[in-house]
Amino acid sequence: MPERYIIHVDMDAFFAAVEQRDNPALRGRPVIVGSDPKGGKGRGVVSTCSYEARKFGIRSAMPISEAWRRCPNGVFVTPDFGKYSQASEIIHRIFYDFTPDIEPISIDEAFLDITRSYKLFGTPLDVCRLIKERIKAETGLTASVGLAPNKMAAKIASDLKKPDGLLEVKAGEVSEFLRPLDIGRIWGLGPKTANILREQGIHTVGQLADCAPTELYRIFGKHGPQLRELALGHDDREVVMENEAKSVSNEFTFEEDTAVEREISEALLALCDKVSSRLRADGVKGRTITLKIRLEGFITFTRAATIPFATNYTDVIHESVRELYGAFKRNGKKVRLLGVKVSGLMPAAIKESLFEEEMNNKFEVAHKAVETIRGKFGRGAIYRAGGKKDI
Ligand code: TTP
Ligand code: MG
Hints:
Layout: E1 6-11, H1 14-22, E2 31-34, E3 46-49, H2 51-54, H3 64-70, E4 75-77, H4 81-96, E5 102-106, E6 109-113, H5 124-139, E7 143-148, H6 151-160, E8 166-168, H7 174-178, H8 191-199, H9 205-209, H10 213-220, H11 223-231, E9 247-258, H12 261-281, E10 284-295, E11 300-311, H13 314-326, E12 335-347, H14 354-377
Parallel strand pairs: 2-4, 7-8
Antiparallel strand pairs: 1-6, 1-7, 2-3, 5-6, 9-12, 10-11, 10-12
Helix pairs in contact: 4-5, 10-11, 12-13
Bound molecules: thymidine-5'-triphosphate and magnesium ion.
């Protein structure tokens, strides 16, 4: 395989860093973002905490009551997801200025393959510096970056120098880089496997690399030799825009076949609403919209349309679906099932045109409002006038 340059970017103490950015009084202090601690009686968990709070042993997913016990003088803040997704959109947009080969992993983390594009900016390490600088300039936050010939090494490298870290692992140095590290660092090796290895006296990646493949096969079956490959630093997993080939769809079967247009249009709108919510929850949008109609007697038709800009908005999907349905001839037959699918997906953070951005602003505001209400009170709390409530 030709040499690759893979970057892993991960924001530092992401939610807590946003809170410290927006409130100077929180800077330098232990900040714990999570559910309400209720004076130590709260039953939720910690989302994340600032590096100052980590000194008290506080970690993500720890019960908030324990965090309270460990650090009663800390500042406890409940999360404001709107702010975090805004910062997340900015960083993902920055990535696209450096390469189209991006694999978003989470709200604050992504892999970038810059093999084909780094020369536009200088060296691969220059790209890392530029990304860090732009993130700092445009969000006021720090990110840690790892650069390596493969994904696993890049991910480990970004983590080792946190916060505000930058570490390059050169081709030919991966195996040496990994050897002293704890086996728990291997990406794809779960805690159960790690414990079994430790029971065998294998604690470091180097020790695992030195194991005989036959011995590993005996313990773990065919998965064993693969673990050793990872320990040797052999990882050819690619940076994939995971959602490229996928789609999001929902279907609805009527309790009884129907020819009542109002029932059909209510179901179509509710399906569009549901598909839209799922696209948005996954942080993606798509350009191809497909309507599926199954008539009485189980004959199934699909009709598809491609729109100029990818979307995840209910109204835009619905407009296409209505047109597709309007052009479809049932010939008096009743409808048994309806389905709506959006495919040709890409990350929602990509802005395809300025014009589109302006046009969509009102949809974005409306969707965010609905999502806040549903987040608090459940999906049924608010639904489209003219759409079915449950689908
Ligand atoms: P992480 O990148 O795992 O953590 P982090 O950015 O807070 O800190 P680090 O510097 O170690 O990268 O997760 C990103 C955000 O996701 C985090 O700020 C809050 C949220 N999150 C949770 O809500 N619950 C969790 O259990 C974890 C791990 C993260
Ligand atoms: Mg992070």
